[in-house]
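Hey, can you fold this one?
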Amino acid sequence: MGRRADPRRPRIAGVAADVNDARAIDAARTWLAAGHGVAIATVIETWGSAPQAAGAHLVIRDDGLFEGSVSGGCVEGDVIVAAQDVIARGGWERLDYGVADARAWEVGLACGGRIAVFVQAVAEGAFPPALLDALVQARDGGATLTLATDLATGVTREGDTGAFIRVYSPNLRLAIIGAVHIAQTLVPMAALIGFDATVIDPRGAFAAGPRFDAAVDERWPDEALAEWKPNAASAVVALTHDPKLDDVALAAALRSDAFYIAALGSRKNHAGRLERLRAQGFDGAALARIHGPAGLAIGARGPAEIALSVAAQMVAAWRVRAPA
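Sure. Predicted structure:
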């Protein structure tokens, strides 16, 4: 059922992609619910200076509307045409583009590199629609989901056995307790490394004004976190030095599956913090989850360097927990 398939290509052992194609997946679900035919195109192999990494998605609607990218614009037009054909007949198709191929110049991949794109109808027997729901459920629950595609049959299933393996990471989130100077640097830094940050501070003077390019929640931390619901892809960092704010936030975080919990302050202040939390019933194993003082020991000085140390420690904690 596939065109331009090349059986001489080596099988792919597996690809773990950090790219989160949430918008593409959400668009595919919306279009399906509206009655449209949909195809999903995935970069399955790259060589040289390919513009997108393996695992990148492009979803295409039956009328040509699309979301996502497989080449940064180089071959999207050709992929969209092929996808509309796949939607019409069902099944799948493999597309190979390379600088040695005259067709690469025709479709725009003249800058170097080669890519292979696997196009599947979002339908039973190819990419089952239920997998889109599973991806969203895992993403929203902070879980990782692995899908395997058999490149000979064109069928994708949950699991880690197949010619092409795609690991989907959940949405990474960060709750910052305290609208302080460190938070002003940590918010954009978190965005750059893929975290959606929320600042929580009930002190009106701190939260007022356009100081943050992020959501600012002016409720008390326990109330805000009860709605925010920290999950296994969430980090909570307390920066206020005020036990009335930090302690309640840390307690809420400890009752969750948050992968990173940290609090600013000296070692002496942290020891006092642990005693207060122990009095609330948290045992040693729970308290050991708190990184205190927050951040890697890089000799940080000033808000920007402290924010850097916190961001680095947060990434390290995620990489220990998440798949490689």
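The CA atoms of residues 19 and 56 lie 7 Å apart. Let me know if you want another pass with a different chain boundary.
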